[in-house]
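Researcher: Please predict.
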Amino acid sequence: MRFHASTISRVSQLKNRPPLSFQSYSSSQLRSNHKKRCNFGVAFDIDGVILHGRVPIGGSPQALRRLYGHAGELTVPYLFLTNGGGIPETKRAKELSELLGVNIMPSQVVQGHSPFRNLLKKFENELIIATGKGDPALVMSEYGFKKVLSLEEFASCFESIDPVSQYKRWTTTPLSDRKIPKVPRYDVSLERVKAAFVVSDPVDWGRDIQVLCDVLRSREPRGDANRNQPPLYFAADDLEYQAAFPSKRLGMGAFRIALESIFNRINPKSLEYVSYGKPNPFVFKNAEVILSQLRSSFCLDRPENNGVPESHPFETLYMIGDNPSVDVKGAQQAGHPWFTILTRTGVFRGEDNHAEFPADLVVDTVEEAVDYILKRECIS
């Protein structure tokens, strides 16, 4: 049984708008429109738009540099809106800055698990478990959660909880670098797990499904199965996404389907969960708030009234993505002022527009998308 993190269901009025044609503008026209720069903002997906794995694609470094002034100051508010994650936003911003050659701030990185911050009041001092690639426990700890165990650390408290663990010869990090403490930080025999968080794509599906089924059925692997299910949260629900491999890879949504299918077969009550991430419209509403804050704080060309920055709605927010069912669908459901641009460098590779979720504009690369935006907004 799925519970959406938001029930906003407005349908975008933009998808039926004809795309604007490119026009040439004189330098005087560009100067007269200079103050219009912050009337718009841009949201970029990462995988399949900006990067394939760790490799920049589609002229993304050059495209992003056009959003800064000659002195490196931010002139166009933009952020990265991704369902990916597994590392803190501070670390992800540093990584993106190094890969793309521009200064990216943590506030410009919105990952699938970023909204988990909003659950801090509910679970700040409760025992929770977190799973996924990267360092999910660190992510949750940096959000302020006080009692976080990775699923790996939690499983280590129970001998033979994973019956095939002795056959697993692989490891994601060298043994010397593993962060599993010899003595668990919390006594899980005295305190029950109050919530489970799938922060990023799980690595060991078999173990994670087994342990999550144990916890969700009883809150404690050796307990009875008659208690109410603790809350379960997914950072995203992508069935597939574009990584470094040429064809699409299974995402967190595929893991959720596997877990739900097994749980519903062995438990009398259906699995209850909340999914965050795109295409939930609230993600785009949250992005609009962040872009507005970026405009007020960092854009040197923000409009002012007697020296005080003005706060007014954006005329247009551009979503540049590669997945019609995630990027385009979500922005269209969020409605005005979102304008959707679909690239052909990721999940979508079609010649024409997507049939079910047509974007306002289809381009080959993110560089072409940014070029279109700046010309439409009268910026050289």
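Model: The longest helix spans residues 281-298.
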